[in-house]
What we know:
The protein is of the alpha+beta class and 641 residues long. The chain has helices at 16-29, 41-50, 67-77, 95-101, 115-152, 171-177, 187-191, 196-211, 257-277, 296-302, 306-309, 314-317, 324-338, 384-430, 438-468, 480-494, 516-533, 603-613, and strands at 6-12, 32-38, 55-58, 83-87, 105-108, 155-162, 166-169, 215-224, 227-239, 245-253, 281-285, 291-294, 343-350, 356-367, 373-382, 476-479, 500-504, 511-514, 541-550, 566-574, 617-623, 627-635. The strands form five sheets. It has a five-stranded parallel beta sheet with strand order 2-1-3-4-5, sandwiched between helices. Strands 7-6-10-9-8 form a five-stranded antiparallel beta sheet. It is elongated. Residues 8-124 form the Response regulatory domain.
Amino acid sequence: MDIQKKLNVLIVEDSLASYKAIVSVLQNFGFSIFAERAEWKAEFEQRINDETWDIIISDFYLPDFDGRYVISRVKEINPDLPVIIVTEFLPEEAASEFLNLGAAEFLPKSSIIKLPFVVNRELEAYRLKVSQKKAWDMLVHGEELLTRSQKISHLGHFEVIFPEKNTLWSLELYRILGFDFGEIPLMEKVWSLLDPTEHDHIKVVWENLLKDNHSKEMIVTLNTKVGRKKVNLWLEAERFEDSRFRIFGTIHDISDLSELEHSIKLNEQLFKGIFNNSSQAIFLLDLQGHVIRMNRTAVLSFERDEPDIQGLELIRSVFSNSNQESIKKLTYGMKLALKNQSFEIFVSYSLSDGREKYFDCDFYSLTDSSGKILYIVLEAKDITEKIVLERAYAQSQKLEALGTFAGGIAHDFNNLLTPMLAYVSYLNSEWSKTDTNEAIQKSLPAIEGISKSLDRAKNLIQQILTYSKIDNSISKQLDLREHLLQVLKEVRTVSSNQITLFTDLGNEPAYVNADPIQIFQILSNLYENAVFALQETTNPKITISLSKILYEKSELLHVGFMKNTEYWKLGFTDNGSGISPDIIEKIFDPFFTTKGGKGTGLGLPIIYGIMVKMGGTILVNSSVEKGTEFDLYFPAWKTMF
């Protein structure tokens, strides 16, 4: 993207429709827009002071101030910043008033089509002024540096006017040559310090300079009173009128320069090596937070090319899709860095394909010897894999704790339930609904409620016992596709016929190493969950797919603990109520359920535990009111033994 087309614009406008129209017409012209709207005076003051803008576009009539205030306030802060007034209900003769106040242009809203051309013109003029100011500052600073550097770098100059042969040496040249300041300057004295071969060569060069206007540069050695010196000799001839001309030259003592240049090059190589080969992503920013450089790791970690974000504001461009909490932390870290304070933060980052990454970030400043801040640095360490592993480990710890709990008390609790169920069964057999005893008739609903509660308790204990047996399961090689067809045949006979079922299971056997009972638990649980989610859906649908995938070409690359092998991917998708973002991370927690009294909260945790035990995993993607997709990954076996 042409950096000249990038535009930070503040639009002072109380009409949202007009704001959108201005943004749209500029974008259609080819501008890459970052725009903010200010409607009230307080908003305008905050944005004009807190942000860096390329141009201001303002209406005249505003709720608690007007265009005159906008122009005058902008000119106080930055006299060169262009302000364009776009308004209605004012005669075009009013344009002279706005221009006298300092506005760059006045346009009626009916002529908004002209706005991109005006913006382009004023933007170029503004950027030219900024460039000229920078150039002037650099020139003034350069003169000062030149004066100092001549002394520091041992650069002497001389001048010879012909035909008079009037000669002038600078003081630094006296020092380089080792002559006293009272010595009469003659170029023959300089040539006498040369080695014989170089002396003969200089004579030829000097004679050629006397014949024509040209320049010559060479490295020679001078035998001065303080020792041999390696110098850079530069000569230039300039001819005047009346057969008069001069030769101007410099002699630069570079005796120590070779070692210095070597050190500089070595330091540059070290910097580039450390910068580009660092395991951490590094962004070099200016004091406004714009990206100057980013290293190779940053390109790979953030999946952004350097030319695309170079010159853009880091937080608004790179982290634009991050959550508000991360953006607040980054903004605060930038402010502290501008105060020469370091700051460490944890932030999330969203990739273009929706994947989430996590980074430990450090903000700090780079200063010169006087302590003046030159640049801001953001170092970001990718800890996505660590976060994923920690979450997986936490989940496995929950499952392990539940398994220990189940093994310790489930059997004993089941023994307590057995006589209770027997007593209730006895009462049911002894007390008939046709019994005329009034007390018995009043007790029957209570007995029925106790019976149902005991059945639910027994079911819960059975689920917990299932948990405790995950590690003791007996695995064998089986065809996942065949088992899936069998489960679907069984569950379809007892589920609602209103649900439309779509299957894409292919024709290839899907061999995996698993416990058949656990496979049944996985498939039946997923189907029952989908049926429950479709209770309130008008046209309920379930889609089940089965396909073989490669690790390198799947989303498993970002899971962090999966093996590099082939997997059978089993997809369960429904168009039901979906899962809200605030609870989706809890669905694999033991005893967490959204079914109320109809669920135990152990179905999905059991599936998760079984999948991890097999070396696979289960991933979920859901949108409220759109549906849910569960993707299960089973390590694939090539043949059936």
